[in-house]
Amino acid sequence: MKTQVAIIGAGPSGLLLGQLLHKAGIDNVILERQSGEYVLGRIRAGILEQVTVDLLREAGVGAGVDGHGTVHHSIELVFGGARHPIDVHGLTGGKVVTAYGQTEVTHDLMEARKAAGLVTIYQAANVQPLDFDGSKPRVSYEKDGQSHVLECDFIAGCDGFHGVSRASVKDKVTEYEKVYPFGWLGVLADVPPVSPHAIVYGNSERGFSLCSMRSLTRSRYYVQCPLDDKVEDWSDQRFWDELRSRLDPELAGRIVTGPSIEKSIAPLRSFVAEPMRFGRLFLAGDAAHIVPPTGAKGLNLAASDVKYLSRAFIEHFKDKSPAGIDSYSQVCLKRVWKAERFSWWLTSLMHRFPDTGGFDQKVQEAELDYLVHSRAASTALAENYVGLPL
Ligand code: FAD
Ligand code: DHB
Predict the structure, then answer these.
(1) Ligand 2 in reach of 199 Cβ (< 6 A)
(2) Residue 77 resides in a domain
(3) What pLDDT score does 310 carry?
(4) Do 158 and 35 lie in a common domain?
(5) Count of the separate structural domains present in the chain
(6) Is 252 in the pocket of ligand 2 (CB under 6 A)?
(7) Is there a domain that residue 252 lies in?
(8) DSSP structure string for 183-229
(9) Residues 158, 125, 101, 18: is their CA dihedral positive or negative?
């Protein structure tokens, strides 16, 4: 089989790239290790920046987010037993974020890909990018026990943090990493969100908490937990009790509880691999970088990488210009590091670290107080939260 761009991974990066390239008349094939159902079953991000929503529209899949997304004009910080609204919309000259789940984004992209008759090979085993240093790259894989080779002009490594793309250039990559001493326990439940107008980020003596939503009838909540906790340690009742104990009394009293439909623990990590291009192999999304989820940047960064990468391929195939390809890594990394900084900062501000002494605790409290009382500091939070311009 032959194509112009071989895409490894059918997560949001791979699917969005495929759709943008298809719109520009560039042929592509996606190779995905898992089944489509498995990919859709992973409950992850939920908050989209304006840039990401615009990109979904550009890819022809904006109907879902436009019809079912919930626009948020503000966020709330809860600490010291009180709520502090941050008017993100007002502080950024009218920008907003939209609650629309990664599962839904992925679903919309999969449907569009199916409708366009584009090839996605699910349950492709032993996928291996090859010969990307030369002019004729290939990707080998196995399907139903048979070996295959996909010939292509370029390979897009959209295969996440544990994928084969970055692993195949291990000796050429510089890695920057920070691992945090806690995880997030997330629960999805079909109950109305406690705060349908704002995402709530809490810092209490018992640790971080987050109240988010997928729709007016489906909520997503998180609490900071020790890294060695297991999902089995957390009954639904224990989760709801813990969440309530970390919020202010009014909000806690309004939480509607119900059976969880998904419960998982994710470790928190900051990670960047440099560069993001190796000859004709390009890394995008989680394959190249990870942020701790506190700033809701992971999926949005994946989308901006894909925007730059699709533009680079379009310039190559349509305008015969290497400019976008040559600058891809540098342009992406500039934005990536700003999101890394913001995600690290918000994580440091909103969590309780196991070994924090009295001094660091007092400094955290002072920073929170400064943040909600200084327009300049609130503005810096707001403009990063809605997403920096491309
Ligand atoms: P992925 O979504 O990881 O997709 C990569 C795809 O490649 C997968 O489908 C995988 O099966 C496939 N693949 C892997 N290896 C191979 C291979 N060898 N061959 C073929 N295919 C392969 N972000 C937020 O903003 N907010 C959150 O709350 C949040 N929660 C998260 C929770 C978890 C547990 C994780 C892991 C991430 C979370 N993120 C969150 C981050 C966000 O979900 C990611 O940034 C986003 O999924 C990145 O998309 P991607 O397509 O680059 O990678
Ligand atoms: C969600 C996840 C986040 O990391 C975040 O900062 C806000 C919301 C969510 O899953 O809805």
Answers:
(1) yes
(2) no
(3) 98
(4) yes
(5) 2
(6) no
(7) yes
(8) EEEEEEESS--S-TTEEEEEEETTEEEEEEEEETTEEEEEEEE-TT-
(9) positive
Q: Is 212 in the pocket of ligand 2 (CB under 6 A)?
A: yes
Distance between Cα 74 and ligand 1 center (Å)? 27
Residues of the chain below pLDDT 50: none
Q: For the chain, what's the residue count?
A: 390
Q: How far is the CA of 84 from the centre of ligand 2 (A)?
A: 18
The β-bridge relationship of strands 289-290 and 260-274 is antiparallel
Q: What pLDDT, on the 0 to 100 scale, is given for residue 319?
A: 95
Residue 220 lies in a domain: yes
227 and 333: one domain? no
Residues 137 and 279 in one domain: yes
CA of 11 from ligand 1 middle (Å) equals 6
What CATH number does residue 246 fall under?
A: 3.30.9.10
**Nearest partner of 14 among 121, 127, 156, 140, judged by Cα:** 156
pLDDT the model gives residue 245: 97
What was the pLDDT predicted at 130?
A: 98
Cα–Cα distance, 285 to 275 (Å, whole number) = 13
Residue the block writes with tokens 């022809």 = 60
Specify whether 338 is located in the same domain as 228: no
- Tell how far the Cα of 212 is from the centroid of ligand 2, in angstroms: 6
Q: Is the peptide bond before 193 cis (omega within 30 degrees of 0)?
A: no
Query: Of the ligands numbered here, which is closest to the C-alpha atom of 159?
Result: 1
Nearest CA to ligand 2 atom 11: 46
The CATH number assigned to the domain holding 39 equals 3.50.50.60
pLDDT in tens, 369-390: 999 999 999 999 999 999 999 8
Same domain, 339 and 234: no
Write the residue with the smallest CA distance to atom 3 of ligand 2.
296
219 and 364, same domain (yes or no): yes
Q: What are phi and psi of 327, to 5 degrees?
A: -100, 0
Choose the residue to mutate in 220, 263, 385 for probing ligand 2, maximizing ligand atoms within 8 Å of C-beta: 220
Both 168 and 283 in a single domain?
yes
Express each pLDDT in 65-82 by its tens digit.
999 999 999 999 999 999
191: domain range?
180-267+354-386
Tell which atom from ligand 1 comes closest to the C-alpha of 298. Answer: 45
Based on the fold, state whether residues 142 and 192 are members of the same structural domain. no
